[in-house]
Specification:
Largest sheet: 5 strands, mixed
Low-confidence stretches: none
Strand order of the largest sheet: 4-3-2-5-6
Number of domains: 1
Shape: elongated
Number of helices: 3
Distance between the termini: 62 Å
Mean pLDDT: 81
Number of strands: 7
CATH topology: Nucleotidyltransferase, domain 5
Helix content: 25-40%
Radius of gyration: 25 Å
Strand content: 15-25%
CATH class: Alpha Beta
């Protein structure tokens, strides 16, 4: 054990590197955070299913479409009707083509409200098909026993 001499100030640690490292870790984890929450809309109450399971691999070029119980389509944060969604979907298809991809490779993820009319979901799928999209996934909540 070392004794201090009279008049000698105790050694103080520099906390700057530790604070810098903390901020770097925070920034690192913010970059890695899963942004699937951003692809959800609080107005949509998904139907429940006992056989639902998450996909095994990440989907290539996912396009999220929300369908409310009133039949309102939310695509890219904008509300529209099913018929008017076609223009936005054609724009999405053109963007994929410019990226040397194809709308047929993309997966359209439809998050329909549990109380949405089945006919509205079918119309939405038909509009997507008219915009050259072929792969679809319907979302549901897992029902726990």
């Amino acid at each position: 054990m070392r004794f201090r001499k009279r008049g000698e100030e105790p050694a103080q640690g520099d906390l700057t590197p530790m604070i810098d490292m903390t901020f770097q870790l925070i920034a690192f984890f913010m970059v890695l955070i899963n942004f699937t929450e951003a692809d959800q809309n609080e107005r949509i109450k998904l139907p429940t299913s006992e056989i639902v399971k998450p996909p095994d691999t990440p989907l290539e070029d996912p396009i999220f479409i929300h369908l409310t119980k009133e039949g309102v389509v939310i695509l890219g944060g904008e509300e529209t009707t099913i018929e008017r969604a076609k223009a936005s979907l054609i724009l999405e298809a053109n963007i994929l083509k410019r990226k040397n991809s194809s709308p047929s490779n993309a997966t359209v993820i439809i998050r329909g409200d549990a109380n949405a009319a089945a006919g509205d979901v079918q119309k939405l799928v038909q509009v997507c098909q008219e915009a050259e999209f072929e792969n679809f996934a319907l979302r549901a909540e897992e029902k726990y026993h």
